[in-house]
Structure prediction request, 594 residues.
Amino acid sequence: MRIGIVGGGAVGLLTAAYMSQSAHVTIYTRRHEQAEKLCANGLTVICGDEKTTHRVQATPFVCETNDDVLFMAVKQYDLTNILTTHVHMLQANAIIFLQNGMGHIRYVSRLPHEHIALAVVEHGALKVDDTTVVHTGVGQTKWSVWRGEQHAFSFLLRTSSRFPFQYVDDWETMLLEKLMVNVLINPLTALLRVPNGMLVAHDPYRQAMEQLFHEVASILHIEQRERIWQHVQTICRQTAANRSSMLRDIESGRRTEIDAILAYVIERANEQHIPAPISTFLYSLVKGKELEGGKGR
Amino acid sequence: MRIGIVGGGAVGLLTAAYMSQSAHVTIYTRRHEQAEKLCANGLTVICGDEKTTHRVQATPFVCETNDDVLFMAVKQYDLTNILTTHVHMLQANAIIFLQNGMGHIRYVSRLPHEHIALAVVEHGALKVDDTTVVHTGVGQTKWSVWRGEQHAFSFLLRTSSRFPFQYVDDWETMLLEKLMVNVLINPLTALLRVPNGMLVAHDPYRQAMEQLFHEVASILHIEQRERIWQHVQTICRQTAANRSSMLRDIESGRRTEIDAILAYVIERANEQHIPAPISTFLYSLVKGKELEGGKGR
Prediction:
């Protein structure tokens, strides 16, 4: 079986490593240099005390793909470009999307592929260099079929117990819950420059997060508010020492996923003529930090 | 003429230094140690390249005051304590209040003194140590009579041209404008850890500040919105390199004046049943930073 992974970031490398245990994996990178290093040195995963190196193929994403299954593991803001300009080259029987947010759904519907799945990654992963990823937290990947048949993805049942997949029926609820987690934890930790646990350790921070929660829950018509609010707080506690991906992006002067998550919420609010004062305010503050380019400390 | 200055912070020391040029000044400090140092070493002001040392009296604020005029130069949160428990010791013909915010007005009305003035300090001042203050920006002190006669404060006309006083008729507008400046610049710079100028240099920051401006202006029924919005932006540009007092408080792990300025706005909103989502959110974030105690960097 041939599996293609589009994206050489933390999630792409982690997925590639575990998939390579039972399939022929090709990683499609943005940069030539990373592809060359991966072909030459292999792909190393560090999980606890264990360090394993896997042989993988890698090539820049300029040529056509020709795999049985494609994992789309790029950030949402890169995905738009790939789906609109390179879609004809994405030959595969099945595609799995691993993005945060929900903004990519509108593009997915235009794809010609027979089987399409949506997934959310609940692992902790930190890219150390072009060929090394640290598996900082073993979680799971929830997935759901968006188009086609579930059996087209049956190979997901055979992955390592350290990289399990869990099927859920309702892709919209799955994505909405992940979106809520991302909306609440990422911008606040990035703005405040604190690890996830601080958001529930200090009462004023929790109160601010709760204010944001109620605003966003109204905009997205979230049912079971209390359950999801508890879920978000649990994740803060379970990942207390983690620095969120958005915080790391800000600290490194990289572009963040703020548009995929918070701008998406503001757009939904505008469509419905619902006010979104806190989301809009927070969005501007994080955008400003992004502009400072990591030099704001 | 005997002038008492209650408070040995940046504003208290600056006021004491310039007043000591034409009057007998006593500084009332919180700590014994500072009073002793001021008596022994004098009070030094650095303004540009000039450095001048002034002889002053100083004593801890435990004894009674016996001055012709008292300047109240403590933070608003210390003022409440002084006015409610030590008011009988504040013997003076006239009192001038130099606080930010408007929360102290309710206490002022209970004072027995014949002449009471309210003032807002528009100087830049940075306390270096217990006996040294840097005059980082020469501005002015606006003042207005709250009770009694203007002539009771005629000595203000004789102060140094580096420390001018300007009379205004309407104390409420004067305090409201200063409150708007403080509400908009202080919490945002403290949260974002940026100098004042950054709030207008980056469009997203200016947009966030403008959102906050409109919310607060509605709560406080600010007239002439456009003029005041321009005024706030002008101050950001004029003090572009300054780090606000609240930012310095957060960085040093000190208590901030967030309650005197933003909690006051939220109280006014609650009284009128006007929503204050952004003010409330921002208040919680700064309170959390205060709790982190300067260790959040």
About this structure: The mean pLDDT of chain A is 93. The longest strand of chain A covers residues 115-121. The interface with chain B takes residues 191-194, 198, 202-205, 207-208, 211-212, 215, 277-278, 280-285, 287-289, 291-292, 296-297 of chain A (CB under 8 Å). Chain A is about 45% helix and 20% strand.
